[in-house]
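User: Teach me something about this protein's shape.
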Amino acid sequence: MAYTQAVKESGYSCVLNDTSNVVGGWDHSLDWVVNEWSPRAAESGVQYFALITTPESFAEATASDFFSSIRAFEVRVFQNMVDAKAWLLQQQASN
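Assistant: First, the predicted structure itself:
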């Protein structure tokens, strides 16, 4: 709740989440993220979400599930910070 409140108060619509150091999967929380967190995040103003993962890791497998399950806002999965930031800046400029 604190996270989505901070997003709402900031007025930002773009989020960058770097999970490149996460080695294991987080599928144990995927249902909650998809059904509880993402609708709240969207209500708080999130429109674009860039997720950085490490290729061929368990975390990347969960990120792929996250990417294909989220409907509340647009999600893209990246393998590096440069591309993720560029995409978010492009989305911000188009709004």
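Now, about its shape. The longest strand covers residues 14-18. Residues 30-43 form the longest helix (14 residues). If you'd like, I can walk through any region in more detail.
User: That's plenty for now, thanks!
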